[in-house]
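Re: duplicated header lines in exported structure tokens

Our pipeline writes sequence and tokens for each protein into one text file. With two proteins the header for the second block appears twice in some exports. Here is an export where it did not happen, for reference. First protein block:
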Amino acid sequence: MTAMTDSIRILLCDDHRIVREGLKQILADTPDIEVAAECASGPEVMHKARVEAIDLVLLDIAIAQQDGLDVLRQIKQEMPRLPVLMLSTYPEKQYAARCYKLGAAGYLNKSTDPEQLAAAIRKAAAGGVYVSPQMAETLASGLSARASSHDRAAHESLSHREYQVFQMIAAGRSVKEIADRLELSPNTVSTYRSRILEKTGASNDVGIAMYAVRHQLMPV
């Protein structure tokens, strides 16, 4: 917490204003948590994280203009002691492990109860790592499964960048759109696409989308 206040000052980052307003209204009923600043895009996150006196970042994984995982990685590189809680509409089993590996202090679905959100903020601000009961069960199940089998779902072998491209293809974005969003060349995106097709066994973009739906890897 900052030296001049007992409240936890958070930077709220989501590109949907209605979501930010809803979260602010929820947290307004929590006296020890204060929304000190807010933003709607990846570049804004980095700017405000540098200049605002904050204790924690609450970051939408699908923030505009920049991939949320890239923003998380950048924050942890520049400000390793600043806790980051990730918010998402994606199922926990899809992104949570990747977020924790990059240094996130927690991963929350946007359907999380207000009490759980506040608990996660308090634990992360105190230097801990928040794992929801659902995620703890998923991680335990995953460890048990790996102990009894060497098999992995194909998408688990995708690199971080391959997974980003996979998600965008599944969402119907073109190679050019993906290249523009990730600031890559179309040839590089096409290379990632070829690797994704090989690893998932899909024959085209429709097959990638069907794979995503079959494995519940689309946002809900």
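Second protein block, exported in the same file:
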Amino acid sequence: PLPPNATVLPHVSGGRNKNYESASAAVSVCRSEEMGRYAVAATDIKAGDTVVVEKAYCSVLLAEHRDTHCFHCFNRLVAVVPCPRCCNVAFCSAACQRVALSTHHGVECPVLEVLWESGASVTCLMALRILSQTNIRYFLDMRDQLQQ
């Protein structure tokens, strides 16, 4: 298995786009009044070509995978390390458990089961994760901009 927080990302096909580091040179980003910003193929793109690769800003484990995957790093569980506060999630290592409890799961643990049972969308779960892991100072600093 991968060590916690290890990231294996594929490479984009056709080399990197000079304007968009995460995109392939096979993609061109355009703008128009009616459509806003959009991407088009700059060259022929074959089935299976990778055109954009970015590390996820936020990720969450869906309820249907809680018995098979680590709640923190998403690796498949071999030896389960349980959450000491709930029976909803498990971790693949003591390290993943420690990091999760000191960050996202420390906030989510008391409400996670209710969120899953409510049918909250993955978007809702990711919004909670982002909000709970962002320092309050960020939002206070943004207050004036958001009110404009």
